[in-house]
């Protein structure tokens, strides 16, 4: 068994969804640089509750808990909001 580490399950979900959305058809004109992607993730995460766990079993349980239509809708809403903020005010 490895050393326990803290993982924010919300962050894992947001990172995956941001990557998926930014490389989709809807956001072809959005800057795909690492800075803009990280800024989008940061803004979205600042508007969502963190869900930290310290082991894989807890991670799976929290992931299942967060992976509901209502939660995914809220996460997507915050990501889209963040994409628009970064698109209007890129930091590079």
- The mean pLDDT is 94
Estimated structural class: mainly alpha
Strand content: under 5%
Q: What's the β-strand tally? A: 2
Please summarize the sheet with the most strands: 2 strands, antiparallel
**Order of strands, widest sheet:** 1-2
**What distance lies between the first and last C-alpha atoms, to the nearest angstrom?**
42 Å
Low-confidence stretches: none
- Helix content, binned percent: 55-70%
Order of helices and strands: EHHEHH
Basic shape = globular
Count of helices? 4
Quickly list its features.
mainly alpha, single chain
Structural notes for this entry:
With 92 residues, the chain is mainly alpha-helical. The protein contains four helices and two strands. It has helices at 9-22, 34-46, 56-66, 69-88, and strands at residues 7-8, 52-53. A two-stranded antiparallel sheet has the order 1-2.
What's the SSE blueprint?
Elements: E1 7-8, H1 9-22, H2 34-46, E2 52-53, H3 56-66, H4 69-88
Kindly summarize this structure in a few lines.
The chain contains 4 helices and 2 strands. By secondary structure, the chain is mostly helical. The protein has a two-stranded antiparallel sheet with strand order 1-2.
